[in-house]
């Protein structure tokens, strides 16, 4: 993991950049990491040292992008402060929980849980953590069903201390956060979902260093499933923190049963051809937590690692930000364009490669998805980490 504090002004600039990235078309590079990296890892006056490892993206350990105090205006409670839970908490779809365990003076409480066709969310609060002048203790959550099927984590966010932007403050030794997990690996998912899902949650802790005292840290944690590092990008890992290791008792296991939100809409499979190459939209699934697309194809060169450039066209149903780009498709519909917040690494299914793309509920609140299109496929060399082959599209899928 890696992280660093920044000033409230830097935070506001970063939040504006993230908002623009969520709405705009990026002509040459449509995944968010390169733009985030350019903003996050610009040299800072503190002169910290970083160890840069040029590992292939999705093989890296979970990457912590520490975004100090990222926030939204008029946050009435903690769970509306988090990007992952804000729309669901506002719509009262999150289940309020209170299972609590204390070990070695540290108390962990599971306060929110949610499951739908596309995502499982767990919201937690931790109290009693020892303070250190060199590091914050950050929980690491792993999830499985009670039959032992692992449920991989995708993205997480959390908060320690105080935030000027959010107008929130947690007492010393306390933190809170939420982690999103991917249920599609569970048997029958997402087509055949149970009414409730029994889960087993494990919590351990890791020390994340920071170079100077700070009133608070707001972080976003992008896990290995979140997508590849593009050309010129590299995971960043800080030097290990100096300080105590977690006590042996800092390991927690919770048994939870979470209701599964029944609302969902699915589409696919649908196959289109561009320049002689078939590409299938295997699944398009909308749920209250957001939308997800799975695209599969037989790669032109199986020795390369393949990814894609894609975009989602939305038909506006209300006020749309003037900074959101617009366009038209046949029929003269006015559209806005957005790009995914998360992308999975390639998965091999026989001869086929499958890629998943995730769109957040906040991207779809005032607009209806009407077209998902893949603009091109890009083959990357595993040896040089550079794109060496491109297959032009587009493959256009109308969403009913």
Chain-wise SSE layout:
Blueprint: H1 8-23, H2 33-40, E1 50-52, E2 63-66, H3 86-90, E3 95-96, E4 100-103, E5 106-115, E6 120-127, E7 135-145, E8 150-151, E9 153-163, E10 168-169, E11 175-181, E12 196-209, E13 216-222, E14 236-238, E15 252-259, E16 265-267, E17 270-274, E18 277-287, E19 290-297, E20 305-316, E21 326-329, E22 333-338, E23 342-343, E24 347-349, E25 352-360, E26 367-380, E27 387-398
Antiparallel strand pairs: 1-14, 2-13, 3-5, 4-5, 5-6, 6-11, 7-8, 7-12, 9-10, 9-11, 9-13, 12-15, 16-18, 17-18, 18-19, 19-25, 20-22, 20-26, 21-22, 23-25, 24-25, 26-27
Helix pairs in contact: 1-2
Defining traits:
single chain, 400 residues, mainly beta, Immunoglobulin-like, 9-stranded antiparallel β-sheet, 7-stranded antiparallel β-sheet, globular, disordered N terminus
Overview of the structural elements:
The chain crosses the membrane at residues 56-79. Keywords: Membrane, Transmembrane, Transmembrane helix. This is DUF4179 domain-containing protein. The protein has 2 domains: 8-259, no CATH class; 265-398, Immunoglobulin-like (Sandwich), CATH 2.60.40. Helices cover 7% and strands 46% of the residues. The radius of gyration is 21 Å and the shape is globular. It contains 3 helices and 27 strands. Mean pLDDT is 74; it is low at 1-5, 21-75, 225-245 and 318-332. A hairpin with a 4-residue loop joins β5 (106-115) and β6. It has helices spanning 8-23, 33-40, 86-90; strands spanning 50-52, 63-66, 95-96, 100-103, 106-115, 120-127, 135-145, 150-151, 153-163, 168-169, 175-181, 196-209, 216-222, 236-238, 252-259, 265-267, 270-274, 277-287, 290-297, 305-316, 326-329, 333-338, 342-343, 347-349, 352-360, 367-380, 387-398. The two termini are 41 Å apart. The protein is mainly beta and 400 residues long.
């Amino acid at each position: 993991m890696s992280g660093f504090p920044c000033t409230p002004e830097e935070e506001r600039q970063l939040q504006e950049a993230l908002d623009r990235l969520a709405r705009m078309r990026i002509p040459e590079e449509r995944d968010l990491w390169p733009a985030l990296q350019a903003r996050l890892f610009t040299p800072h006056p503190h002169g910290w040292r970083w160890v840069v490892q040029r590992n292939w993206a999705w093989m890296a350990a979970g990457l912590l992008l520490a975004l100090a105090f990222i926030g939204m205006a008029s946050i009435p409670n903690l769970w509306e402060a988090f990007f992952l839970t804000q729309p669901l908490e506002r719509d009262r779809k999150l289940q309020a929980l209170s299972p609590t365990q204390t070990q070695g003076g540290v108390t962990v409480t599971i306060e929110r849980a949610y499951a739908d066709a596309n995502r499982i969310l767990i919201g937690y609060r931790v109290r009693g953590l020892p303070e250190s002048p060199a590091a914050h203790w950050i929980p690491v959550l792993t999830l499985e069903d009670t039959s032992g099927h692992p449920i991989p984590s995708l993205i997480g966010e959390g908060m320690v201390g105080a935030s000027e932007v959010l107008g929130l403050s947690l007492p010393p030794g306390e933190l809170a956060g939420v982690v999103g997990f991917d249920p599609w690996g569970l048997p029958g998912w997402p087509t055949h979902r149970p009414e409730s899902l029994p889960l087993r949650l494990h919590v351990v802790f890791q020390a994340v260093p920071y170079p100077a005292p700070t009133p608070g840290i707001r972080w976003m944690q992008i896990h290995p499933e979140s997508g590849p590092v593009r050309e010129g990008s590299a995971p960043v890992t800080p030097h290990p923190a100096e300080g105590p290791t977690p006590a042996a008792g800092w390991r927690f296991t919770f048994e939870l049963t979470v209701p599964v939100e029944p609302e969902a809409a699915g589409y696919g499979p649908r196959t289109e051809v561009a320049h002689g190459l078939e590409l299938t939209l295997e699944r398009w699934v909308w749920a209250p937590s957001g939308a997800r697309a799975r695209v599969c194809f037989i790669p032109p060169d199986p020795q390369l690692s393949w990814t894609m450039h894609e975009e989602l066209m939305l038909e506006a149903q209300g006020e749309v930000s003037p900074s959101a780009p617009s366009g038209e498709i046949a029929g003269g519909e006015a559209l806005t364009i957005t790009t995914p917040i998360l992308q999975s690494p390639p998965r091999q299914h026989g001869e086929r490669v499958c890629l998943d793309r995730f769109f957040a509920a906040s991207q779809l609140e005032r607009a209806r998805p009407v077209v998902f299109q893949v603009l091109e496929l890009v083959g990357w060399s595993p040896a040089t980490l550079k794109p060496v082959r491109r297959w032009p599209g587009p493959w256009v899928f109308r969403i009913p």
